[in-house]
Amino acid sequence: MDTETKYKSALWILIVMTVMNVTFLATIGFNNYKSNRITDEVTATSVKTETDVIEFSGRYFRDQLALTPEQMDKFRVFNPIFRQQAKQIAVDLSLKREEMMQEMVSTTSDTILLKNLSFEIGALHSQLKIITFRYYSDIKKITNNEQQQKLADLFSKMFLNDLPVEHQGNGEPQRWRRGRGFNQ
Q1: Residue ranges per structural domain of the chain
Q2: In sequence order, what are the residues at sequence separation of 6 or more whose Cβ sits closer than 8 angstroms to the Cβ of residue 173?
Q3: How far lies 176's CA from each of 5, 22, 117, 180, in Å?
Q4: In which band, very low, low, confident or very high, does the pLDDT at 161 lie, cut at 50, 70 and 90?
Q5: Is residue 27 exposed (0-12), middle (13-18) or buried (19+ Cβ within 10 Å)?
Q6: Mean pLDDT of the 75-95 span
């Protein structure tokens, strides 16, 4: 081969290698950007879902259920305990989801770790549901029949918002429902 042909071949190899390197670096940068954005969105969504339980404050229940001062005294006994437990579970869920997301977007995801994180998230959801139904029962014990119906409506909205969404083929999302609420 003559010198000019070697020079042209080397130049084309250099150009191809440069394009490949730029593409590789752009892909890494884009994946890091996308990973951070997804993690932020997942964290924001998970915190909102779990804080739906927490935002049921004493004032909210007092106003919605028209609780009497005597009922409020009883409510103040169990409400702070529930709120503290629910807040801790919400924080733990958020951290586990973030850990799971980071593992999913890593270049070499550990499927055993992902499976374990899934089970841990499920266990935390179970704990949240258990303390929530106990909380509901505690409120129900201190309320009359009319207030209990309103309480069922309040909790139904929260629980129905926690159900997965399916599409019925017409593009409209529908919630899975077995019943219409707690006491209906």
Answers
A1: 8-160
A2: 165, 166, 167
A3: 69, 47, 25, 11
A4: low
A5: exposed
A6: 92
The total number of residues written for the chain in this structure:
184
pLDDT for position 30: 72
CA-based end-to-end distance of the chain: 88
The whole-angstrom separation of Cα 12 and Cα 170 is 53
Structure tokens that stand for 161 in this block: 């918002």
User: Quick check: pTM over 0.85?
Assistant: no
Residue range 130-159, pLDDT digits in tens: 999 999 999 999 999 999 999 999 888 777
Of 82, 124, 85, 121, nearest to 101 by C-alpha is 121
Beta strand ranges found along the chain (DSSP E): 165-167, 173-175
Under DSSP, the state recorded for 180 is S
